[in-house]
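User: My collaborator and I are trying to settle a disagreement about how two of our proteins should look. Neither of us wants to argue from intuition anymore, so we agreed to look at predicted structures for both before our next call. Could you fold the first one, then the second, and keep them clearly separated?

Assistant: That sounds like a sensible way to settle it. I'll keep them separate. The first protein:
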Amino acid sequence: MILYEKNFSGVYLDENNEPNLKIVKHSQGDMYHIEIGIYRLTNLDDGKGRADFDVLEFVATDANGNPIEGEITFRNDTAEVTFTHSTWPLLKNGSKFHYVRQREAKADKEKTYLNAVEEYLTDEIRRHYTDGDICIPFYTIIDVDDSNRDDIKVKGDFWVLNYNLVGDTLKCVSGGNYPGQMHIRQSGDCFTVIAFDEVEDGSRFISSAKRIFANKYAKWKKVYSDEKSREKVRAASVAEYVKRHNLKATMYQDYGSKAVRI
């Protein structure tokens, strides 16, 4: 079941209209990756924050390599960054900086069943794996039956991958494949996953896949077996995520493999 929680992720503009506050929700819990830029003064690129209602408490590393702490408070589309514990002489305790959320042209688009798919993968399926800084799902939709708004059936080859951002590289730390059929309920413009029929592991893998995908089994099998095409879908999903969140990542990498340029 998806719960639509408050999410502070986004890009925020400073008073010079520069994108100097970037917030990305971790794939698990209430933790965030935070990058703070202060115009012509400094950049804090390794911030880690925890949400507490309308406040993010964070810790980062200052220009001298020492911990620096603060909090970010939110009111509508504005964010106020206050430094509460600083030993860096150019940032005194109590220093405040203001930012306004950047709105994209498509930011207010209606939710579709794909939003529900992505949120289910990041909110539910990723719990099966070791957590990372960032969760980036990707998938290939095999078939959609939307004849019943109370039970929209979405068959697909779904993947969840968790990454840690190390320098400019997204390093994959965990994840896996979850082919199956999601059942989604539509209420107005809200879509919620109410059930997920997963293809079973082991000896029942093929038989359960045939049962779930039915007359679309051959189509799914072709997608499932095509590693080259799957990597293209993954690469596009990573690139879109990095662009949407203005991350400084230029590559992603699996353990024991060469990094792939985004």
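The second protein, kept apart from the first:
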Amino acid sequence: MRSWIVAAALVPLLAACGARDEDEETAAAANYSPPTVTSRLDFGSEIERRFHENDVNRDDKITPDELPERLQPMIARGDKNGDGALSAQEWGDMLLDWFDRNDLNRDRTLTSEERETYRRQQRERAAATATDQSAR
């Protein structure tokens, strides 16, 4: 009888231990970002959708006021005709150029690893430029 009482007392304790481990695993999984792979073809198919998503007033061009502040410099980079806005063609050319710069092994497929490597290289270049300018 005594062993049944001890066993009955241990079951809730063991169940609680299992729940904590499960909660920790769930929290770790919530911070997990699976690797991604995007082909140039798939990326190209997203360009038009992204254009229309950002063209808030539906005038077939994206102006600085239609982009978040952090993305507004994209206008100057992609505006080839100097009208202060991005046409669908300018938008597409700019995004495909971004894809190609990030596709480090030139296999027309962009992985999350390549994107992170490209970002790291950009940060390193920016730091080197800042160091060069401060040395002058």
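Some points you might bring to the call about the second protein. The two ends are 86 Å apart (CA to CA). The mean pLDDT is 85.
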